[in-house]
């Protein structure tokens, strides 16, 4: 998979060199390229923003650097992947579709993603029109119903959610089958040894007996019941939208 990120803060993406994503990059499973939007400006101050036409607070990202950046990134990607390759262009945006496990899964099947990190009040609307007219598939994606200062943190989160689902990236592919949201439910409680643990307040806390029984059928049924119970308590909205299995938000 190829991933390009266009941002005015390339350093923000440094954590993508670490851990599983870093390893996937070194192993050639993911080719990740970060581009500085200011590299596509031509004035002394490397200006990427201007005041909103029609008035209002804040600043708006200018269309010219974005169009140049996209032209460069798309030409580079097509040189690598073939002239007919077209990326999915993702704009992290609080007004976008909420990221769900199902969307992460379908994005993990794409050959090429381009992330465009907006800052300030957002990007001039004509950039979206221009890309759509060029035949790009555009998606606005939100991490949740709150406002971040820009798209970079969202790119870190979305990239991690997507790249871990790329075949070969996780050591144990079964872990993505069992985890929260893979069946539209939150994950059941998990335990490790010792079976009896006395906590620092002197209270003995035991692993549920059933997990020590060796009866895989009963263990699976118990886990499913705990998943349902937990989902009902913490995320009743997921049960209300059942039918969209593999389709939900937030972590364990
Ligand atoms: N940019 C600003 N806020 C955001 C959010 N909630 N999700 C994705 N991108 C954002």
Automatic annotation (TrEMBL):
Where in or outside the cell it occurs: the entry states: Cytoplasm
Name the Gene Ontology molecular function terms of this record. tRNA (guanine(37)-N1)-methyltransferase activity
Give, as one word, the top-level EC class.
transferase
What is any Pfam family matched here?
Answer: tRNA_m1G_MT
* Region: Disordered, residue numbers: 233-252
Domain tRNA methyltransferase TRMD/TRM10-type as annotated: residue spans: 1-239
What EC number(s) are associated with this protein in UniProt?
Answer: 2.1.1.228
> Which Gene3D superfamilies does UniProt cross-reference here?
3.40.1280.10, tRNA(m1g37)methyltransferase, domain 2
Transmembrane portions of the chain: none
Note the NCBIfam families from the entry: PRK00026.1, trmD
UniProt-recorded name of the protein: tRNA (guanine-N(1)-)-methyltransferase
């Amino acid at each position: 998979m190829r991933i390009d990120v266009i941002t005015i803060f390339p350093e923000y993406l440094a954590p993508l060199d670490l851990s599983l994503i870093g390893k996937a990059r070194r192993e050639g499973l993911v080719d990740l390229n970060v581009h500085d939007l200011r590299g596509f400006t031509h004035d002394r101050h490397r200006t990427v923003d201007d005041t909103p036409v029609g008035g209002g607070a804040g600043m708006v990202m200018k269309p010219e650097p974005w169009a140049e950046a996209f032209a460069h990134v798309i030409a580079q990607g097509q040189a690598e992947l073939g002239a007919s390759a077209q990326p999915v262009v993702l704009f992290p945006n609080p007004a976008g579709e909420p990221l769900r496990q199902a969307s992460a899964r379908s994005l993990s099947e794409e050959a090429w993603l381009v992330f465009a990190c907006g800052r300030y009040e957002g990007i001039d609307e004509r950039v979206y029109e221009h890309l759509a007219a060029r035949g790009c598939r555009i998606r606005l994606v939100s991490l949740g119903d709150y406002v971040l200062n820009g798209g970079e943190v969202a790119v870190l989160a979305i990239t991690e959610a997507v790249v871990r689902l790329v075949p070969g990236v996780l050591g144990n592919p079964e872990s993505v089958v069992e985890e929260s949201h893979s069946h539209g439910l939150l994950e059941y409680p998990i335990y490790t040894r010792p079976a009896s643990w006395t906590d620092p307040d002197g209270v003995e806390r035991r692993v549920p007996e059933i997990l020590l029984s060796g009866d895989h059928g009963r263990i699976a049924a118990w886990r499913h019941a705990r998943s349902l119970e937990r989902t009902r308590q913490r995320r009743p909205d997921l049960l209300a939208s059942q039918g969209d299995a593999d389709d939900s938000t937030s972590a364990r």
